[in-house]
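Sat 14:20. Reprocessing the chain from the morning session after the first attempt stalled halfway. Input below, unchanged.
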Amino acid sequence: MNSQDIFKSALTYEKKIRDLYLSAVDIIDDDRGKDLFKALANDEQSHVDFLEYSLERLSSAREIDIEKLVFRLPSTINDDVSRMEKKIPEHMLGDIKRALNAALSLEVETSQFYKKAWDNSTGQVKEILKKFYEIEQSHVELVQIQLDYASGNGYWFNFMEIDMED
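Finished this time. Tokens:
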């Protein structure tokens, strides 16, 4: 697969996950959930913008400025996670968990795409795909943290809060 094909495929993944986050904003009644999904949708839109820019640069055989690819989630996202400590109303929890499960699945799939493409690329494209992989991995972790909390399964930041064995 050449660089343009990789970026076109990546664009499909990024649009799909962006659209999922945008649809979640319309479904979720909880403001904390809406804020999280809006932030994730905005970050995914920045990926779409970067890929479209990159495709334009590749078609004219110009260098891609990798500095334009940035992690755009606000630094307050960690504060938003701590705000989640306030219990989400039970009637909203089902929608949030469904949206988070769908998001996690797409984020993992997208991350795996970038990892495979990164492993099979060279030069600047390899560097770009590595950065995308790292960004998507951070999305996987963030969504997993939110899902763990919403599910009340005893995990927080991927660590068991209470260990009944000790």
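Residues 154-164 have pLDDT under 50 and may be disordered.
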